[in-house]
Amino acid sequence: MIHPTFFFKFGTMKNALRGLLILQLSFLLISCSNDTNQKQFSLLDSEDTGITFNNKLTETNSLNYFTYPYIYMGGGVSVGDINNDGLDDIFFTANMEDNKLYLNKGELKFEDITIASGIEGSNKWYTGSTMIDINNDGYLDIYLSVGGLDTSRENELYINNGDNTFSERANEYGINDIGNGVQSTFFDYDKDGDLDLYVANYPVTPFDAPTSYYYYKMNNTLDEETDNLYRNDGGSFTNVTDEAGIRTYSLTLSATIGDLNNDSYPDIYISNDFSSPDFMYLNNGDGTFTDVVKESTNQTSFYGMGVDIADFNNDSNLDYIQVDMDAKDNRRSKANMASMDPDLFWSTVNYGFHYQYMHNTLQLNREIIDDKPFFSNISRLSGISSTDWSWGPLLADLDNDGWKDLFVSNGTRREINNKDYFNEISLRPIANDSLLYYTSKIPSEPIANFTFRNNQDLTFSDVSEVWGLDDKNFSNGAVYADLDNDGDLEIIVNNIDQEAQIYKNNSDNNFIKIKLIGDSLNPNGIGSRVFVNSGELSQMQELTLTRGFQSSVSPTLNFGLGKNDEIDQVKVIWPNGQEEIINNINVNTLVELKIENSVNPDFNSDDIDTFFENVDLLKYKHEENDYNDFVKEVLLPHENSRLGPGIATGDLDGNSFEDFVVGGANGQPTAFFYQNPDGSFEKKQFSFSEEHSKYEDMDMILEDFDNDGDLDLYIVSGGNEFEPDTPILKDRLYVNIGQGILKYSDSSLPNNYSSGMRVSSADFDNDGDLDLFVGGRVVPGMYPVPAKSYLLVNQSNNKEIIFTNATNEEFSNNDLGLITSSVWTDYNNDNWIDLIVVGEWTPIMFFKNIDGKLVEDKSLIDEDSTRGWWYDITSEDFDNDGDMDLVVGNLGNNYKYQANEDETFDIFYNDFDGNNSGDIVLSYYNDGEQYPLRGRQCSSEQIPAIKLKFDDYDAFSIATLEDVYTEPALENSLHYFTKTFSSVYLENVGNSFIMSKLPVLAQLSSVNKILKKDIDDDGFVDIIISGNMFNSEVETPRNDGSVGALLKFEPNSGFKAIPARQSGLFLNGDIKDMEFISLKNNDYIISAKNNDLIEFTRIK
């Protein structure tokens, strides 16, 4: 509703509040006087601001890295108006110095009132801080976390006395937590109106602790080791950790609050270091929590550091960013960063933890299923995956354009992962009286923080330098706040051994500020959601104060509006479910929203008419055999033994109901499911089933090859675990002898012993029967040497099915590359069906059918520009213009590997060290130079001589590709390259194809299968895509960001991606194939996943 009484106010310069007219005039003057060359941010001089805080570390023989490895975790910063003058003040924590409280005097001038306020602290090791009005008296108090070597680690609570002084009273309130504190956050978890407390602790743990240690400690957690939840019982707090179900041993570096599943109850995300798994605690609404991180995400960061939760894509659902330690720079990555140890990685997984990878994760909220949110990590696509030794991420609108940008504080005072230094000192004993000396010799390199501008399409651009935020530091805690009340957000950073930094924001975009006035138990309205609509711009923020790392922000919310000069609506939903709506608000104002003006909302159903729903029809699991491709092929980019299964649908037994066949891995028989009239399925076996389980089933196709009116079965044999050129790689044909009974016919196929991938059928010679193209994938154990592909000509007679290899005249291109898919289509409308073939490392290859002879056609598109990792292709006249267009599925843009027209991703295969065994070398570009993708350790496992050529990691870290492998050897290698990993649409315009990228939601992972159907009956064929690639090596996080996508074709704009929560399509997992199937007059999609259950999706 529109409430008649709402209040505007705004504070600027020395005056806390000014009128709206003065505000608008001042902004007009600022806009007119802005220097066009001025950067977005300006670093303020401490002599001007009065902020001279320096978190200085004084290392000694008794306190140094070797005695306290957590010494460089730094301090935090909190912002809030402690004296209610309308200006946000700043509090810094220090590890070995006094904490500092600075009173904001206006005009970005601050007064140090630390000593007078009594908040400097004792000799404790202070870490995180949070401002909160804990006693509901209208003044912000400050809660401090304490860690360090000292056994006196009790957290402290400083109560604001209302006169700029504070009194420490943590024990009185019952929240003098004894853990090794990192940070804390306040929220109303039980929705009783007052604010409860979650305390994040990091128990001291050896850096080299095995996964078994974490597993044991998680089941045997001491009081001083667990995080703790304290319930507010009206002025005192009760530890309810056990009854809430969250006692656990975890190396917590961040605890962040947000309603992740939109049920109005606040949830908790716990970011944990090392193998200690993260927790996503969903609030059950009864005082307990349930960890759903494994159900709600496909992967997390390994060295989980800071987290921020916010809606960065403006869809009114909370996403989150978690940072880790992954360098963007080739040199720092190979010299100073830990690498993913495969044994440690799989130990972490096998102990029941999660798939944890060493990179930042930006988790996009995709869908809520059975009250559980599901997130896809899109950090590679977004461009923010690698920000070095990162601590505090902040999602905030830094340029006031209405979209949240990203700031990441990073740096470590000493490079404690420098491989050369620690390898050197490991060879000698270190005496206790030498610890300071060896600590001082650890290399040290300040690095710039990262700032990314939101491009409004799920991607970000690095603007650290352009925006003036590229000073090199050792940064830890950081926050944003509008310190000068001009409507944009300054950035405040706490550094080690360097003065804290205040960056003034110079934005001239419009804004609105929201101040919430809650009730007596929650005066700042913590947990409320505020929605702002301005034209096409819709934003949502949820008020929680603890963000990033060891820090907390002001309770005033800031919304950028770009150049929009009108605000259509502001709505607040309070924690009690009531709401207030106001319309037609002026820009550049401060709006106070009071809970006393709220009302119960009108009920509006959130139900959406979707196109799909997943259903449980039967349980059958593809079971992958145990084979480790990396033992034989150390630097293989991904396993080639885990590429199945395929699936095929059709009416095998002639009862008018569609059946289906699912391939098995080596050791698992092919599965046959026959449909009954009631829509149920009966699993059948044949005489060949057990014997043929020795094969690795890849693709399969059901067609009537002998024109006798029933469907026969062709199965492609593949795999990487077999010897090359052996009978186990021969494809198989099963003849339908009636009523769905299949009989194996060895004589029907030529003895092509090629590890294949996909098969497609067409009558290419127009003789009335179906011929086959079978794509060869890879010679087993010799990646990237391609297996041969074959065109099989149907020579069947009335006695038997016979296929023969095409003659060279019919098709002479057996060596096509690592083929993954093909499609038959008449792309030139000459009534002869043509062939288009794609593969890994290949271009899109066109073969024109000239009177039954397939001839390569390179006239249709620039071949080099199409080199990619293609996985499927389909053809249809999507634009209804009378010719056949194409959609081709690629690796996607959300993978560690990236490529473009100028900077390719390459592979070289050669016997580089002359040991009669082929070696794989992958390369990439970094800052214009071509480097080996893998580091010294991994590379030397394949070629031991590399360690002799490069004595240390530092030397290898600056070595280019030619430095390591030499130009002559590279030139004599089998060499492939890619220029694009984007899935694409190719529009047929007559004599050529125009290639354009599919929408961004189609780029979140590999597209392994494409189905086509007019889903919405608008006369235009749409497509359904699915994919993922779980078989990556562990230094390359698996490609798991897809949940499938419906791409609706619109005649004026091409394909439009429909989000999962609107389409209902949710196809998660390592999907290798999918097909349509009809059950009881309803259309379904059946999806086949590697090492997982098949899945049915009903089309409504």
What are the SSEs and their pairings?
Blueprint (H helix, E strand, L loop, with lengths): L6 E2 L1 E3 L2 E4 L1 H14 L7 E3 L2 H4 L27 E4 L8 E4 L7 E7 L2 E4 L1 H4 L7 E8 L8 E7 L8 E5 L5 E3 L1 H4 L7 E7 L8 E6 L9 H9 L8 E5 L4 E3 L1 H4 L7 E7 L8 E6 L6 E5 L5 E3 L1 H4 L3 E2 L5 E4 L8 E4 L2 E2 L3 H7 L5 H9 L5 E2 L3 E9 L2 E6 L1 H4 L5 E9 L8 E6 L8 H7 L9 H6 L6 E2 L1 E5 L5 E3 L9 E2 L1 E7 L8 E6 L5 E5 L4 E8 L11 E6 L2 E6 L3 E2 L3 E2 L4 E6 L4 E7 L5 E7 L3 E6 L17 E4 L13 H4 L14 E4 L8 E4 L8 E5 L5 E4 L12 E7 L8 E6 L14 E5 L5 E3 L11 E7 L8 E6 L13 E5 L8 E3 L12 E8 L8 E9 L2 E5 L4 E3 L11 E2 L2 E5 L8 E5 L15 E6 L8 E8 ...
Parallel strand pairs: 21-25, 37-45
Antiparallel strand pairs: 1-45, 2-3, 4-36, 5-6, 6-7, 7-8, 9-10, 10-11, 11-12, 13-14, 14-15, 15-16, 17-18, 18-19, 19-20, 22-23, 23-26, 24-28, 26-27, 28-29, 29-31, 30-33, 31-32, 34-35, 35-36, 37-42, 38-39, 38-43, 40-41, 43-44, 46-78, 47-48, 48-49, 49-50, 51-52, 52-53, 53-54, 55-56, 56-57, 57-58, ...
Name the helicity range.
10-25%
CA(first)-CA(last) distance: 36 Å
- Which sheet architecture does the biggest sheet show? 5 strands, antiparallel
Query: Low-confidence spans: pLDDT under 50, at least 5 residues?
Result: 1-35
**Oligomeric state of this protein:** single chain
Strand order of the largest sheet: 24-28-29-31-32
Query: What portion of the residues fall into strands of 2 or more residues?
Result: 35-45%
General shape: globular
* Class derived from helix and strand content: mainly beta
Number of strands: 78
Q: How many DSSP helices?
A: 19
Mean pLDDT: 95
Q: What is the C-alpha radius of gyration, as a whole number of Å?
A: 31 Å
